[in-house]
Amino acid sequence: MDLLQGLRERKKRHLAKAITYVENNFLTSRPFMGELHQCIPPGKSDVIGITGPPGAGKSTLTGKLIQHYRQLGKEVGVILIDPTSPFSGGAILGDRIRMSESFTDAGVFIRSMGSRGRLGGLSAATQDAIKLMDAYGFDVIIVETVGIGQAETEIVETADITVVVSVPGLGDDIQIIKAGIMEIGDLFVVNKADKEGAERVVTEINMMLDLAPKGSLRPPVIKTVSTKGTGIDLLAEALHRVKEQSMMSGKWKKNREERLWKELESNVSAQWGKILRESSLYANRKMLLQLLSEGKTNAYSEAVSILKELQLPSEYGLKKRSIGMLQKIDHLGIAVKDLAQAVKFYHEVLGLELKGTEVVEEQMVTVAMLQIGESKIELLEPTSEESPIAKTIEKRGEGIAHVAFQVDNIEETLAQLKAGGARLIDETPRIGAGGARIAFVHPKSTYGVLVELCEKH
Q: How confident is the model at residue 151 (pLDDT cuts 50, 70, 90)?
């Protein structure tokens, strides 16, 4: 049985295997994750992130939340991120020990993942693991981060609701209002609230929240004693209220859209890294390092050279893509009465390369195509008085008849134009000069210019 079929049939063994697969094969698992989206659309599970400094009792709090949701009949998926040793590469995975009472519960699935040196409190494959658990069908997915302090902000790009856990007695109480982790919370929990100093921590959090811009949603502050189960019901109620407020304000939808964009960036970044590693940079690493150390070159100049080798602009290495999948101007169409004389001028006088001449019977024209750089000039002579080009010449005289843009996929581009309200002459492609698939957009939608779409072939 394949992994996708196992997920459809809600088999935990296949879920575990799928998570292991994406965790160990991030790049090669991209087609699998793409197929997952097509077969089992995600977005049904509520994702709750639990973060905070080490020793705040996050794991015990998570364990109590699991029990609360199970009493409500909800199935829970849990991802525990543990720090990875920089020396051995292993992870302690100690959080599982504090949740041992949930292991035998058929409605709970707990997965530990090492951070593998990733900053921000999460593993590189955390988002994929969430997608897989979502596809499996959990009602709630809880993600507990490493617990590294103020820099642990990556969870906000992963969870629907981020819970920041703090405790009294951390030492320097002013740490609680510093920039970083305290700015990402949708809900704040002061755990171990039976200890001295708990009220002071609550006060300091509320003072920080008082500085938030007016009109923004104020995160609730809940006191808990997770070892005793105190305040867990209040925490669950607060989580439900935060979700309702977030959905009403549109923040819930916006956050999910932002996560989709971050997911796209992550996958593009991974592919880009693979391309870079396969370039001559790594093949010539030893030689290049020697040149760098001897001061004969520098990292900035070499970066530009590498981008040129990969055929990317040097400005930050980004290849610009036109809106609507337009790649470039393919050619300019020029209506002429005498093709032979026009070809003589453009070819012999201006020096453009003549690529060929042909008759396009469907459009009732004879066409001559001339190359200039990456673009072309298309000279069009009508072969009939009924030809659109003949009518153009009669109405406007000789001159530019249309502008042709090259596109990757002509059907997708036509669909996008139609959705945007454009008036199309051709709703389905036709065959043009050179056998290319083409389509025309009406001048009334393009401010008086006849636009041709020409599919790259």
A: very low
Dihedral of alpha carbons 63, 65, 69, 71, sign: positive
Distance of alpha carbon 163 from alpha carbon 47, whole angstroms: 11
pTM: 0.63
DSSP 228-280: TTBTHHHHHHHHHHHHHHHHHHTHHHHHHHHHHHHHHHHHHHHHHHHHHHTSH
Tell me the three state secondary structure of residue 110. strand
Burial 166-197 (b: 16+ CB within 10 A, else e): bbbeeeeeebbeeeebbebbbbbbbbbbeeee
Q: Can you tell me the distance from the alpha carbon of 320 to that of 48, in angstroms, rounded to the nearest whole number? A: 36
Which backbone phi and psi does 199 adopt, to 5 degrees? -65, -35
Whether 66 shows a pLDDT value over 50: the answer reads yes
CATH of the domain at 83: 3.40.50.300
List phi, psi (to 5°) of 86: -70, -10
> For position 174, what pLDDT does the model report?
44
What's the domain range around 150?
3-254
Same domain, 288 and 218: no
Total count of domains within the chain: 3
- Tell me if 364 sits within 8 A of 383, measured CB to CB: yes
In a domain, 314, yes or no: no
CATH number of 423's domain: 3.10.180.10
Strand partners for 295? none
Q: pLDDT per residue over 337-389, tens digit each?
A: 999 999 999 999 999 999 999 998 888 999 999 998 878 999 999 999 999 99
For 71, the token pair is 């009493």
Residue 317: inside a domain:
no
Q: Is 234 exposed, middle or buried (0-12, 13-18, 19+ CB in 10 A)?
A: middle
> What pLDDT, on a 0 to 100 scale, did the predictor assign at position 433?
80
Residue 50 sits in the same domain as residue 117: yes
What is d(CA 19, CA 21) in angstroms, rounded to the nearest whole number?
5
- What whole-number distance in Å separates Cα of residue 450 and Cα of residue 2? 51
Q: What is the CA radius of gyration of the chain?
A: 31
Q: Which two tokens stand for residue 191?
A: 């755990």
For residues 232 and 65, what is the distance between their CA atoms, to the nearest angstrom?
7
Evaluate whether 135 touches 15 at the Cβ level (below 8 Å): no
> 66 and 101: one domain?
yes
